[in-house]
Amino acid sequence: MARLRIKTYKNNNSKNNAYGKTYGRLVYVDTLDTSDLCRHMMKHGTIYTPDVVKGVVERFVMCFEELLLEGNKIKLDGLGTFYLSVSTEGVVNEDQFTANNVKAIRIKFIGDQSKESEYATKMLTSKARFQSMGSKAMPGAEEGGEGSGE
Questions:
Q1: Does domain 4-144 fall into CATH 1.20.200.10?
Q2: What are the residue boundaries of the structural domains of the chain, listed by start?
Q3: Alpha carbon 84 to chain centroid distance?
Q4: Contact by Cβ (8 Å): 53, 46
Q5: Confidence of residue 48 (pLDDT cuts 50, 70, 90)
Q6: Cα dist. 11→61, 144, 145, 148 in Å?
Q7: How many CB atoms lie within 10 A of CB 60?
Q8: Helix H or strand E segment including 56
């Protein structure tokens, strides 16, 4: 089983309650694009060729965007729910608020927490295996994750 790599870092923000504590962040190996995902899916024994799988995924992405922009949330069973949120500029009176007050639209995600989900936090945590990298990251690797130290 693959191992998630964790790099440690120390909170050096003296104004933070977690000052001086050491936390961990995931180190990402790579960012996979649609073609990479489709090639990976092929390795799991699908009867479809990579170009067919890629076509389905590309159509999925187009429809996904369309449905989100129509105001829908999209739940992928066993994975989670995607939805849009907006960042807006406030106004004093409600009647002054217009679409021009919208500063950003973001896609948000809530992981499926049902007992059946392979992606529920408890299930993922129990399946994960970790490799400590100390405070040194791999060359070219990306850092990420959430800690209480920032």
A1: no
A2: 4-144
A3: 14
A4: yes
A5: confident
A6: 38, 15, 14, 9
A7: 12
A8: helix 50-69
What is the C-alpha separation between 36 and 47, in angstroms, rounded?
Answer: 17
The tokens 């990298």 sit on which residue?
A: 133
Q: d(Cα 67, Cα 11) in Å, to the nearest integer?
A: 41
pLDDT at res. 87: 93
User: Per-residue pLDDT tens for 52-109?
Assistant: 888 998 999 999 999 999 999 999 887 889 999 999 999 998 999 999 999 999 999 9
Number of residues in the chain: 150
104 Cβ partners below 8 Å, 6+ apart?
A: 86, 87
Q: Is the Cβ–Cβ distance between 112 and 73 less than 8 Å?
A: no
Burial 88-115 (b: 16+ CB within 10 A, else e): eeeeeeeeeeeeeeeeeeeeeeeebeee
DSSP string for 95-144: GG--GGGEEEEEEEEEE--STT-TTSHHHHHHH--EEE-TT-PPTTPEEE
3-state DSSP assignment of residue 51: helix
